[in-house]
Design goal:
With 298 residues, this protein is mainly beta. Helices cover 4% and strands 33% of the residues.
Length: 298
Amino acid sequence: QHQMTDVVRGVGKVLVPSETDAEQTISGVSAFNSDGFTLGDHVGANENNDTFVAWCWKAGGTAVSNTDGDITSSVSANTEAGFSIVTYTGNGSGTGQTVGHGLGKAPKVIFLKKRNAATNWFVYHGAAGDGAFEGLNTTSAYGSGLAPFNTTAPSSTVVTLGNTDGNQSGINFVLYCWAEIPGYSSFGKYKGNGGSVGSYVHLGFRPAFLILKRIDDSKSWILFDNKRSPSNLVDKSLYPNKESVENNFSNLEVDFLSNGFKIRNSVNTINGSGATYVYMSFAEESGQTPYDTFPNAR
């Protein structure tokens, strides 16, 4: 299983994106350091002779109290990188309650999970609309009626919460929030064409990490990166909603280019004819790429 751990919830506190499980305490990561992290002895993070991948975002260190919303939150925010970790306890006061996220600009992507109760993850993606995906742990299509975010776009200061999926009384929640930073991150959507050579998506930078999800059908989220696939074609993929080992399929391939990415196969997971997909992407190097005209391959 994938494991998600962070400095706000604390060392050893793990949520599993492929499951509905509440937060667990295991010895996966034993310390967060200034230049990396230290591993414990849990087989999910440190099994002898197994190969692992880690994707890391730098927040703002120790969380601080945030009173921007109706519900006081604890927030660790890195406004330069557009990433914050938010924890809060639901008050059950109906829909429309708000919680501060600390980014100073509206987040485009939010992951939401109850910490002390078993429930689905929920994902807000601004390019899909103001509803939510009932995942990462499922393959569910985008749902305009799902209400953990009250079908309300987040503002520059707060996230608006909806029903008990986002604001159940006495339940502890965590939000992972990303705002778009030009030259570093891009969150958008594209249309599939069903061909062996698919869409090109302009990002303004060479991607290092890419997550894709079809929004109009039940398909898995899929993750690519430039460490497991250091050259094109980028063909080593993982699914956050599955425990399966790394894929190396000839029909799940993309190119990472100097200023974007290009889909290279016709499979429905990434390039169904007329299908709509959302993506999250992060740059190989921060700052604007000098290759803004021609999308060169690696």
